[in-house]
Amino acid sequence: MTRYLLSRLGSALLVTALASIGIFALIRLVPGDPVTVLAGPDATPAARDAIRAQLGLDQPFWSQYVHWLGDLARFDLGPSYKLGGDVGSLIADGALNTVVLTLFALVLAAVGAIVTSTAAVVGDRRWLNSLLSGLNTAAVAVPTFATALVLVLVFAVRFPVLPAGGTPPAGFFAQPDIALQYLLLPGIALALPAWAALTRFLTEALRTQMRQPYVTTARALGIPRRRIVLTQALRNALPSTVTVLGLQLGTLLGGAILVEAVFAWPGLGRLVEQGISARDYPVVQVLLLLSVVVFVVTQLATDVIHAWLDPRVRLNGVS
Amino acid sequence: MTLDVSLEEPLSPVPVGPVPGDLAPERRDSLLHALRHGRGLVGVVLVATVVVLGVLGPLVAPYGPTEQIKGANLLGPGAGHWLGTDELNRDILSRTLYGIRVDLVVVFAAVPVGAAAGVFLGLVTSWWTVTDVIAQRAFDLLLAFPALILGILLTAFLGPGVLTVGVVIVALEIPVFGRLVRTSVRTVREMPFVEASQVVGAGPWWVLRRHVLPNSLEPLTVQLAVSMSVAVFIEGAMSFLGLGVRPPHPSLGSLIKDGVRLLHEAPFFAVGPLAVVVALVLGLLLISQSLAEARRA
């Protein structure tokens, strides 16, 4: 297990290190100069040089990069160029909103998927299967931004029962009931495609389990089908589903950009958009690195959980 | 008389029909069969309908895509304008027909280009350990960026437009197909018939081209259909965020965006473009499902 963990950790660190160099270089290659953005069009060359020196942009590339790594390690990210405020606090504010929304959607999708796929396998009626498969295909075939907008129009405009957008004024933890109202619509819009993918996968995994000899034995012993699914098959079908759940987290973060745009949700997705159009290097490079780190960590975590749930993986060292 | 047969001449395997143990040829028929029946057929019909509408668009569209018609402001669906008109007096049916063409370019040009590049890179690099490690880490790196973040970043370089959407999709598909083909290389090269082929002198190229590629066509075809449906979404999402096709030119994504924005004033605006998107994605999904099912059978 230790050897398996170390090899996974090594490759995760390598990807992160390469990504940090790539991002740092890429951001500096984007056409448009932050000095121009800051100094305005009629600044004198001397004033521009002063701003450039103040931002450290006159230093060589590697020196800037090492400097940045030092800042990252100390969590002292300095002021943003253009968006106003400290980079660290801008990102912390956005991150809280995005993380709450994404986790809420992930829980909705996972719980929904477990309920629908066990219902499909336990019930195993033709009409139920057709209904679930139809819902599933619909959830995949309608784009997220369209679902999000339709949800707003139905539940916030036509029948004003839920807020049309924004984050709860009192924060997420002071009044959980109000916060839930704000989270519900964006959460559902974000969760639907993930729910569909998870349900499809889990149903298939459960069906595979139900064909195993141990299930036949259990049936022969007279244990009801429902109990076999809930106590045996579900537990054996979950490990491989965890891997899919990890991949879905990446999709959810991508979808969060769209959902945040529709629901005026001040999260990281909006920050990336604003940061790139304002050439705010310090904000954008940290955000891009953050998205890579999240991806690498979820991959690592799913591999570790998978290895922990399934001894064959950790013993053979294959995933 | 001198013997002019040179023994240094490398032995090359002679193609003599299917190699014993090679599963590729017989299974290809079952994929075609899946597309001619049931769900697969429905998918093919849906996609073909959208393609025909897009290709014939300029011939059948009653108006130009950006043509403004006097006195036709936000009309509902009617005899003159089957899908109604928008807030700038443009015929929505015509705009939808022209908008399909953007998605056709993205789905049937960008995705195959990205897939071909990914398959090529994956095949070439996965044979040798050093190139394999480098390529796989590079693919990991590309996959680590969520699709839309990659889109926003590339738009900062290239500016918004159809070309940018295409480049984003190519960049997204390369690692997906590169990884997929690598799995095939790893599996197929261990098979006995490949070993037999190598014994009679087949080099890496021969094995990759004649054995690995035919045997990985199935998973690749399924992934191609999935990737095409994802591409429709990415075009929509990018146009929705203002990174795709520039107004006033239509694309399905920007039409849905306008339609849903005006859902109060013109409830039927979004119906046409949304139906086309759903038909296209649904068709591609059905195709991929039926292909995946035929593979397992």
UniProtKB/TrEMBL annotation, chain A:
The keyword Thylakoid does not apply. Keywords: Cell membrane, Membrane, Transmembrane, Transmembrane helix, Transport. GO terms for cellular component: plasma membrane. It comes from the Bacteria. GO terms for molecular function: dipeptide transmembrane transporter activity. The chain crosses the membrane at residues 12-30, 99-123, 135-159, 179-202, 244-266, 286-309. Pfam families: BPD_transp_1, BPD_transp_1_N. It is found in: Cell membrane. InterPro entries: BPD_transp_1_N, MetI-like, MetI-like_sf. Residues 95-302 form the ABC transmembrane type-1 domain. The keyword Phosphoprotein does not apply. It is a multi-pass membrane protein. Belongs to the binding-protein-dependent transport system permease family. This is ABC transporter permease. It comes from Nocardioides simplex (Arthrobacter simplex).
TrEMBL record, chain B:
This is Dipeptide transport system permease protein DppC. It is a multi-pass membrane protein. Belongs to the binding-protein-dependent transport system permease family. Pfam families: BPD_transp_1. PROSITE patterns: ABC_TM1. The keyword Electron transport does not apply. It comes from the Bacteria. One of its GO terms (biological process) is transmembrane transport.
